[in-house]
Amino acid sequence: MTDADAVHRSQHAAADSSADPAKGIALAKNDSALVGERGKTSISETVVAKIAGIATREISGVYDVGGTTERVVGKVRDVLPGTTTSTTQGISVEVGERQAAVDVAIVADYGVAINQLGAAIRRNVIAAIEQMTGLEVTEVNVVVHDIHFPDEQDDTEPVPEANRVQ
């Protein structure tokens, strides 16, 4: 083995090393700031779900987020005083120490190319989560539960105050 081969193998081994023997912890070579010499940062599933929910709602062509039951509960929540719309509605996540996986359930606007909508959601969710958390997003699965037609009134719309029986 030549000196050049030895140097190359040494560099390659160092690059592939995924363990810190002094700490007994597996660390990636290009590890983010989530695990450092003085501690680690943990990011809860709620935080990642909120980021994913906001990133999903930013995409044109997404009428609503969530399945039928979640949207009905969301509409009820909207009319109750002192409550707010849940940003995690329709979002399911799994978060590890370095990676996250996301499931997104949506209702698409009629006329939108669903394959392009799914790709746009995927890109935006991945970019937002990776930029804000440093986690690697392994997958974003998009489920389209329904299509909303522009002239269609939501069955879950609250009855206007003027029409309520008092």
In short:
The chain is an alpha+beta fold and 166 residues long.
Question: Describe it for me?
Answer:
The protein has 166 residues and is α+β, with helices and mostly antiparallel strands. The chain is 36% helix and 25% strand. The strands form three sheets. Strands 5, 6, 7 and 8 form a four-stranded mixed sheet that branches. Strands 1-2 form a two-stranded antiparallel ribbon. The protein has a two-stranded antiparallel ribbon with strand order 3-4. A hairpin with a 2-residue loop joins strand 3 (35-36) and strand 4 (39-40). Helix 2 crosses helix 4. The N and C termini lie far apart (92 Å).
pLDDT averaged over residues: 76
Helix content: 25-40%
Q: Indicate the low-confidence ranges by residue numbers.
A: 1-31, 156-164
SSE series: HEEEEHEHEEHE
What's the number of helices? Answer: 4
Structural class: alpha+beta
Per-chain topology:
Blueprint: H1 3-16, E1 19-20, E2 25-26, E3 35-36, E4 39-40, H2 45-57, E5 62-65, H3 68-79, E6 91-95, E7 99-109, H4 114-133, E8 136-148
Parallel strand pairs: 7-8
Antiparallel strand pairs: 1-2, 3-4, 5-7, 6-7
Question: What labels would you give this structure?
Answer:
single chain, 166 residues, alpha+beta, four-stranded mixed sheet, two-stranded antiparallel ribbon, disordered N terminus
